[in-house]
Amino acid sequence: MTAPNDRIDGGGVPVPTTPAGASSTAPAEYPPASPAGRGMFGNQGTGDVSGFGGLVRPRRAIEDSPRPYGGYFDEVRDALEEAYPAFADAIEKVVVDRGELTLHVRPERIAEVCQVMRDDLALRFELCSSVSGVDYLGADARRLHVVYQLTSMTYRRTVRLEAAVSAEDPHLPSVTSVYPTADWQEREAYDMFGIVFDGHPNLTRILMPDDWEGHPQRKDYPLGGVPVEYKGAEIPPPDRRRSYQ
Amino acid sequence: MSTSNYATERETAEGKVFTVTGGDWDNVVSGTDPINDERIVVNMGPQHPSTHGVLRLILELEGETVREARSVVGYLHTGIEKNLEYRNWVQGSTFVTRMDYLSPIFNETAYALAVEKLLGISDQVTERATTIRVLMMELNRISSHLVWLATTGMELGAINMMLYGFREREYILEIFEMITGLRMNHAYVRPGGVAQDVPDEAIVKIREFLKLMPKKLKEYENLLSGQPIWIERTKNVAVLDVTGCVALGVTGPVLRSAGLAWDLRKTMPYCGYETYEFDVPTHTDGDVWGRYLVRLAEIRESLKLVEQALDRLKPGPVMVADKKIAWPAQLAIGVDGMGNSLEHVAKIMGQSMESLIHHFKLVTEGFRVPPGQVYVGIESPRGELGVHAVSDGGTRPYRVHYREPSFVNLQALPAMAEGGLIADVIAGGASLDPVMGGCDR
User: What pTM was estimated for this model as a whole?
Assistant: First the structure.
């Protein structure tokens, strides 16, 4: 970890070009939370001249995007602000990245926000397309994020809601009373990440067996190796193979 | 509590003995809930020929009427989403293609679109690559609907439909084999474009297919549409209206059969679908019959789209020009799938050291993707297929979540089945067209 931060824009590194549609103050910048975020072959500041190995990215927190956001994003934000009195308290950040709008919502407010998003005539997000979890281990103190993709069939718009909870207290209200379709998807997020949706009618495992221990898609979930019948050898788990260290 | 009404008692050397006599059970039965008592719980699946895959249904029956239905999924869970996090971005294509095994091209395209959006190269994807994607997706939609027609026919007692459906699907799989080298699990659509160009023989074969298929569709209609048993088994069965569909997140042909013309190809176009001429078939009854008609009509629309895509196919590159992202070589198609390009091997091994380094870096380590998250939704044969992809700036996906239409749509099964006959559970479940490989991932 010796490369200086300012190398991110130069040094022949191929990737960090600003993607089309992203604002210049690129938000949603999470630092590499896992070895997977670094280069392969465990290259840390050795004689590598290609710029691939040991690159350290600046730890930039998620920032509010400056207004105007462009597109329908301003209308959505204004409509929500008008329809929802507790907007300032509930919405932590508004981020526009790669042509997508993300509202970061305080977890205890998520069901209320969904209710307004669904029912307000200027918003009308009737369909909850997807609910999924992401584990930002090491990058965020509230590491477990729940991501809701809402679709407005009336206005043909999409918006993403994101709520972050900590692994110690992974509770947030269920949105099944607003969007019944969230039922199985919240069960999957519980199964895979251990996020507890309070008020869910039947929060049980759905993909893993009922008696499974642990939540497999958490980043600190231990991976198993494969024993092979040769002098007690074992194929190491994927994250401990040479290329991932 | 007195026991004398039901049983006489007497003392013996071993202790008190009760003798229960007949005749009083009617009183006991009538004292409890007369309906509840007749309910039996039937477990159907997970291995059952007509549950449309490894799906388990727990049905509470009152006679032949289903009072409560619950579905249990997860039997095919293989951890594909977790696996993706330990492979580089290009290798992801080979994993996602195995999710919904009846629509592999859709899984791949959704993934490729998401990665391209993360990379910010969506506008660099060549026109030919996009057209090939549309062509392949629409062929795949036809083959997927054919399997639906075939299996549903079988489940409702029309075995001949199964044979015909799979016969015509085989034709499409042969086309896929000519183009991608494999019948299924193609890994053909890659981030940045497609793996290799469409050979000329495949174009000829697709043209033949376009001539053949309308006749076959008429054949299916002659076989099923006027047939009294088919009509009895499908009309007014497993009805779900638009409100129910939207609340339960049901999209695709099921939603359109209820009357809402919601098709992402029209409403939120991708891959240039806004430039193609096609209709979105709908029906208003929201029953299995409506879903059958909608799917048949969708096959016709897909044929139109395939024809237009063929006409647009102009020579050109099928991968983005950016050498930091594009796979280093056009792979050759052999009898056993995709293989090495000898020309490329000769170049990197004999002529250009830089090409060898480049190839090595790109293939072993892969390209980096700037941090961030995107969601891309496309219209698969079953409804909205969404990919939520998160990158932390590394060479491997940080998280990829698939919004699988099979998974979401299956939630609607209790709403369709409860209150109906047990035979209609089969028809209702089949009309959702769940693919358990996609549902459980």
Answer: 0.83
